[in-house]
Write a structure and sequence with these properties.
By secondary structure, the chain is α/β, with parallel strands linked by helices. The protein has helices at residues 19-25, 61-73, 114-119, 139-148, 152-155, 166-179, 225-228, and strands spanning 2-4, 9-11, 51-57, 82-86, 96-97, 111-112, 122-127, 135-136, 158-163, 183-186, 202-207, 210-215, 222-224. It is built from 7 helices and 13 strands. Strand 3, helix 2 (61-73) and strand 4 (82-86) form a beta-alpha-beta unit. Helix 4 (139-148) packs parallel to helix 6.
Length: 233
């Protein structure tokens, strides 16, 4: 979710699902762990599209926090990240009403991630679970609502980035296609070796040579949305 290479630390947000993560959660402070990384290919924001729309669903939320913080720290463009998060279970942070005006948002969508709000980065939450202050619907519907509020020049400066469950990523790709915007998606797949040796995380990807199997751990996890979710998908 966060990293500082110069200071030598990383911050992970994880959910206890299964024996492995349960064991991780039981590690005491100061325990020494073996970690491999970074691996794979990350998001590649285009400087001519500084209006970055970040969409995170469920366990896809932490990478959006990471990307938002990186964009905020960059000086190569006037970056204006907007982070939209969706979850049908309680969010992994105490939401609060945002202090940042996000034009184009539905009036009921006022809940935000406090960490991002404190950084001066606009964020909004979406859920079908009836959480206070959240947009009642899918996070991709909230994204479409905001995109509809933009004029053509603003859309020309917009690029989508998404991480979350596959159905959400497909929906994000459809939203990007609807508005004619570039979109990058970070795929979620089980990774056995994480070095490209076992090919257990391979997915079909459209390339210039045709359909090919690409390994999410080293060729991804970030791909162009149109390559993994073409119009017929």
């Amino acid at each position: 979710m966060r990293a500082d290479a110069a200071a030598g630390w990383i911050e992970l947000l994880y959910k206890v699902v299964g024996a492995g993560l349960d064991a991780l959660s039981r590690q005491p402070a100061g325990a020494l762990l073996s970690v491999m990384g970074p691996i794979g290919q990350g998001f590649r924001p285009a400087v001519d599209r500084p209006r970055a729309l970040l969409i995170g669903g469920g366990v896809g939320i932490p990478p959006m926090v990471f990307l938002a913080e990186r964009l905020k720290s960059r000086s190569d463009a006037n970056w204006k990240p907007l982070v939209l998060m969706g979850s049908e279970i309680p969010f992994p942070f105490p939401a609060r009403p945002s202090n940042i005006l996000a034009e184009g948002m539905p009036t009921e969508a006022i809940a935000c991630m406090p960490l991002l709000d404190d950084w001066g980065i606009a964020s909004r939450l979406a859920s079908l679970a009836g959480f206070p202050g959240c947009y009642e619907g899918y996070v991709t519907d909230l994204a479409a609502h905001w995109l509809e509020s933009l004029d053509d020049p603003a859309r020309a400066e917009t690029e989508l980035f998404a991480c979350g469950p596959t159905p959400m990523l497909k929906a994000a790709a459809r939203v990007a296609r609807r508005f004619g915007l570039p979109c990058q998606v970070s795929l979620e797949e089980f990774m056995a070796c994480a070095v490209g040796g076992c090919a257990g995380c391979a997915v079909p990807v459209v390339t210039e040579e045709g359909l090919a199997m690409k390994r999410v751990c080293v060729d991804g996890p970030v791909f162009d949305a149109e390559a993994v979710f073409p119009p017929a998908a």
